[in-house]
Amino acid sequence: MSSPPLFRFEKTSVIAIGAFNARIIHPTWLVEIGAMDAKESEMHRMEINVEEATLRLAPVSDATDTWTISTRLLAVESTQEDTTIWDAVGKVLKKLPWTPLTAVGTNFHFKSTDHPPSPHAPLIPSKLSVQGYQTKVMGSMIGLTKADSESVRNVQTVMEGDSCSVVVNFHTDMKPHRPPGDQAKAIEEALGNFPDRKKEADKLIDQLFRKDGQ
Predict the structure, then answer these.
(1) How far apart are alpha carbons 214 and 205 in whole angstroms?
(2) Residue ranges of domains in the chain
(3) 183 and 174 in contact (C-beta within 8 Å)?
(4) Are 128 and 118 in contact (CB under 8 A)?
(5) What pairs with residue 144 in β-bridges?
(6) Radius of gyration of the chain (CA)
(7) CA distance 48 to 28
(8) Can you tell me the distance from the alpha carbon of 13 to that of 22, in angstroms, rounded to the nearest whole number?
(9) Which residues partner with 12 through β-bridges?
(10) What is the pLDDT along the chain (214 residues), one digit of tens a residue?
(11) What is the spatial distance between Cα 65 and Cα 68, in angstroms, rounded to a whole number?
């Protein structure tokens, strides 16, 4: 009989950093390009911050996705585990080929299900060092980093009282991928790997926090 999971999925997000013309990214346009369907667009409330020039599409009703659009970033967050927000962000970026991007990142957030999880935290540095991660311990936070030719993987573990939060981040630097043709290819590679990266994040969590060396 398998042990219950030590962590539960909390949310995921896709973030593109760059110089955006935020005024053109609005619900009607998102529906037009296929990044959001018409019914879904009606499940969001528009919140505009004039001082920060930011538009937020906050979910209402049964919606699970939150959009944040500004002159410096496009971010979509979802509480649905089998989300396709990576595809939605990809469609937006494909329609804006001349938008200079700095980075594209995908993030997976997990929360501990057992209390307290602290006995398992010491396992992280020793296990990750075997896999080639660089480890840095800062008080109640443990940061881990591993880079390859495609992206940088960052794992942040934070102890918060009786609970533990873990964020697995995949960061792709877009600055070397210009002009637009190269950038488009890099975007496709960064976002097209989203399902595999979710599996990798799940596997990583299992490896790090496996109880009693199981």
Answers:
(1) 13
(2) 7-213
(3) yes
(4) no
(5) 135, 155
(6) 19
(7) 16
(8) 19
(9) 78, 108
(10) 455 567 889 999 999 999 998 889 999 999 999 999 888 888 889 898 888 789 999 988 778 899 999 999 999 999 999 899 999 999 999 999 889 999 999 999 998 876 554 454 545 555 555 467 787 877 667 788 888 777 888 888 887 777 788 899 999 998 876 666 788 888 988 898 899 999 989 888 877 776 544 4
(11) 10
Backbone dihedral angles phi then psi of residue 164, each to the nearest 5 degrees: -135, 130
Q: Are 14 and 194 in contact (CB under 8 A)?
A: yes
Q: Round to whole Å and give the CA distance between 129 and 110.
A: 21
Token pair of 102 as six digits? 């700095």
Task: Scan for tokens 């009607």, then name that residue.
Answer: 28
Helix (H) or strand (E) holding 85: helix 85-94
Distance CA 157, CA 207 (A): 14
